[in-house]
Amino acid sequence: METISYQTSAKYFLENFNVLTDVEIEYFLSKVKKKYLRKADYFIHQGEVCNEVAIIISGSLRSYYISDEGVEITYCITFPVNFMTAYSSLITRDRTEENIQAITPVELLVISKDMIDDFASKSQNWMKFLKIIAEYQYIALEKRIFQLQKTNALQRYKDLLLHQPEYLQQIPLQYLASYLGVTQRHLSRIRKQVFF
After folding, report:
1. To the nearest 5 percent, what fractions of the chain are helix, strand and coil?
2. Does a structural domain hold residue 157?
3. Is 175 exposed, middle or buried (0-12, 13-18, 19+ CB in 10 A)?
4. Secondary structure tally for the chain: helices H, strands E
5. Is residue 49 in some structural domain?
6. Is residue 18 assigned to a domain?
7. What is the pLDDT tens value at each position of the chain, 196 positions in all?
8. How far apart are CA 187 and CA 124, in angstroms?
């Protein structure tokens, strides 16, 4: 039953793009591998070259880098059902500057870059699909930049509360504060404003 559940989630996710045929989706799902990460395990470490793309089936991951002062800066938190990869490294084949770590236990469906390149070489639909994913990545990055520059931490917290309420309680406060661009003390004040 578990297999049906995660396959169904992934299939529904891919179908929503309205690009791939049922046959292409089924073939993709036959090639992915299921992978589990325990809480605090890493999908990738800084300095490694990324060779995989994952669909998050359950759990959440954070992407972070180490500042010049040695501080971990969480800049992205990814929830189910979404793609996850160290995108720049995947494209350029350079070593990544980021770390991707499980915030909670995570179930992933993982596929290699070589396999994705093979799909794209044989199917115009896959080329279109990869273009759409690249566009989504750009839009997400732009949205994050605008969010950090145009809204305050209280608005960013409310946005998370609105869109990801079921996962918000699972994010340790130090990661959440870093993601919102505030100290943990400031985050405590924000939470009091929202809940009291």
Report:
1. 50, 20, 25
2. no
3. middle
4. 9, 8
5. yes
6. yes
7. 344 466 788 888 899 999 999 999 999 999 999 999 999 999 999 999 999 999 999 999 999 999 999 999 999 899 888 899 999 999 999 999 999 999 999 999 999 999 999 999 999 999 999 999 889 888 988 888 888 888 888 888 888 888 888 777 888 989 999 988 898 899 989 888 877 5
8. 47
